Amino acid sequence: MSTEPEGAQATRRGFLTAMTAVSAASYNRILGANNRVGIGFIGFGLIGKQHVAGFKTYDDVEILGLSDVYKPRLEEGLAYIGNPNCKGYADFRKMYEDKNIHGVVVATPDHWHALMTILACAAGKDVYVEKPLTLAIDEGKWMLQAEQKYNRIVVVGTQRRHNRAVLEARKTVESGILGKIHMARLGSTRNIYPGFGKTPVENPPPELDYDMWLGPAPKKPYQAHRALYHFRWFWDYSGGQMTNLGAHSIDQLQYVMNAKGPVLVASTGGRFVLEDDGETPDVQDAWFLYPPSPAAPNGWVLAFTMREANAYRDTTGGVIMGTKGNLLFGSNQVVTEMRGDPVNQIPRFLGHPVGGPVYTNTPSVPWIEGALTAPPAGRGGAGAGEGRGGGEGAAAQGQAARGAAGRGAGSGAPPNFPGEAAMYLNHRDFINSIRTRQKPLCDLLGGHRVAITCNLANISLRLGGRAIRWDPDKEQVIGDKEAAAMCTPRYRAPWDSVLRSVVKV
């Protein structure tokens, strides 16, 4: 008789019959007579519905499954999909058993992303998983292990890499025109004061499977804010805005700078002013030290700021700073620095006494010919979305980008949120990767690396702001046992056994 827990045995029966590795040509043969890719969705919330809206208009895709633990959303989602062949599931694992589903979209609360992706890989499914990829650093390692072990394609919802401005920014950095890069600044600011209020402890609604909603997270009494949408303000289910909005802009920056990750992270902040029952910060500042690279031969620093109760932004916005010029994130405009005699930058006051520096008449001229000499007026004012990095570039692409994404007929409406066009490009990349087995742009490794960066900031903050040293090659905390322990999550039973049944932990 097996000594494995019941949950683990069920997982082995249901998931270790995974599809064997196949070539791109043979993979296409199993798509079916109509050569359409079968897709299943987990989660029909704010972002999940947005994904469904995109995939259901693709002519070469058929939505065959939808799973949600909240029955009214499951019913609404099935009606919205409008496909009589689409089945609804209260338990996502049942949906994974459908061999006609080739890929799944994980759009659940953050604490479920890792395990659902791992189990999907074990079930022979390719995965599109929303960001943030993880709540704890080791989860990303387990996901990579599953992707490789089961020969799967995993695309991460860091879709703003697809923005034209981001791709151009990478070329600008590689060109060396900015000189020696030494600093970058990003942020995410808005004002939701006084917050969303407080909700009492009560019984969960009967139409919500709260225990399944919690999944591997700790067992906590039900509050309305500990479930639909508002989960993102609690450490058990989210990393706050650092891993939410921060993941987008930091991923873009690491991609542009071709950086694996930082070597030192420090972060301070807290939940200071919002009058609600949330836990994650409403103010957070983080500093990241990155190692030397071709663009930054002596290393560089990222300063990231997040505010939830004040939307003021300076006029510069996100920027990459070099000795010769600055790259404005989003618009991708280059603003030159001025070259002159350094001695002329010394304050003059009444003049230097004998023996001091001697000023010259050397005029200052632009380091970069033809570049802007100052940021455009009004850039990055309140509400401009500084922290969304290149997101504004996606909105500007409008209908052209949506057309490039290959959506079905009748999709000419402009994007309804920053980055929507890039989301549809990421959808197409996912479908193409399912067919060709080629590496996607927003791959799992990149999603893992940005999750590491964001999670390290939260570890530092939760440990009182102390600096965390990190080895981006070995992916290990250096010299801090308490911080290192926070890299590994503790899954609640039986999900801890389920995890161990498919990957090495």
Would you give an account of this structure?
This protein is of the alpha/beta class and 505 residues long. The protein is 32% helix and 16% strand. The chain is built from 16 helices and 17 strands. The strands form 3 sheets. A 9-stranded mixed beta sheet has the order 13-12-11-7-10-9-8-16-17. A 6-stranded parallel beta sheet has the order 3-2-1-4-5-6, with helices on both faces. A hairpin with a 4-residue loop joins strand 16 and strand 17. The chain is globular. The N terminus is likely disordered.
What's the short story on this structure?
With 505 residues, the chain is of the alpha/beta class.
Q: Secondary-structure map with pairings?
A:
Blueprint: H1 6-15, H2 24-29, E1 37-42, H3 46-55, E2 61-67, H4 71-81, E3 87-89, H5 92-96, E4 103-106, H6 113-122, E5 126-129, H7 137-149, E6 154-156, H8 164-175, E7 181-189, H9 210-214, H10 240-243, H11 245-257, E8 264-270, E9 283-290, E10 300-307, E11 319-322, E12 325-328, E13 334-336, E14 338-339, E15 365-366, H12 391-404, H13 420-436, H14 444-462, E16 468-471, E17 476-478, H15 481-485, H16 495-500
Parallel strand pairs: 1-2, 1-4, 2-3, 4-5, 5-6, 7-10
Antiparallel strand pairs: 7-11, 8-9, 8-16, 9-10, 11-12, 12-13, 14-15, 16-17
Helix pairs in contact: 6-7, 7-14, 8-11, 11-14, 12-13
Properties at a glance:
single chain, 505 residues, alpha/beta, 9-stranded mixed sheet, 6-stranded parallel sheet, 16 helices, 16% strand, globular, disordered N terminus
